[in-house]
């Protein structure tokens, strides 16, 4: 396995509460584009799978959510999960975001500094978010009507995962995922893809006394984090080589409509995914992305469009 086969962060998937709350938060508070609305592929209860990102759904900017309101299932936060999602913001923009979050009535949990980087922490659907000032992140931004361009989020800065046992997780990141340790700060260790930088790093928090979080789908947790691979050969090589190291808790390749995925449960319990992007314009024009409910062919045999629309409008409606 080549060191550069895992290119960086792709998307991260949350179990939230309601679809409308997600739209309001990611679009109106964080200034992201609502790029796709579709359905979760698994299970008997139809629930939304919503996507928010930059203009094009670029890897390293894509947030996806499963609003769990229709199921009533609750998750338990803890170790063996991603526990915080950080976005990059321009240097000097914390004052704007502090005021913007306050006006938006978002629960702010505090401000601090880690790895020499200033950040503000806040909460949505029980899940921790951070905005980190990073002058090196020059990725283009979505032309949001809610957040001025000079303050806009650039994409993911990093994700944080909590583990009770550090050694096995570090071994996996170095030997299997080919990430390198770049910095340490107290209980946090930063690992980055080969070329590093924002959108290519995760932080591991050593939490030996934290209770185990749930792995099932349930409101208030991060379900998994997906990492970008260049092509199917790279994805197959990642799976083959890592299974050869003895990490055999790998799924087969799964078609998720807009990407092809393989999943692995890491030694720390955190669910990783290696993802090949297929793009978001296969079923909608660029200008109309996210405007209609898209039902994948695999799900069309299970649900009629009219049936699903009626259920969602009744139980978890979305108003833009």
UniProtKB/TrEMBL annotation:
Alphabetical list of InterPro entries matching this protein: Extradiol_RC_dioxygenase (IPR052537), Glyas_Bleomycin-R_OHBP_Dase (IPR029068), VOC_core (IPR037523)
Annotated Gene3D superfamilies: 2,3-Dihydroxybiphenyl 1,2-Dioxygenase, domain 1
SUPFAM superfamilies, per the entry: Glyoxalase/Bleomycin resistance protein/Dihydroxybiphenyl dioxygenase
Organism superkingdom: Bacteria
Residue ranges occupied by any VOC domain in the UniProt entry: 8-137, 155-277
PANTHER family, sorted: RING-CLEAVING DIOXYGENASE MHQE-RELATED
UniProt name for this protein: VOC family protein
Natural source organism: Achromobacter pestifer
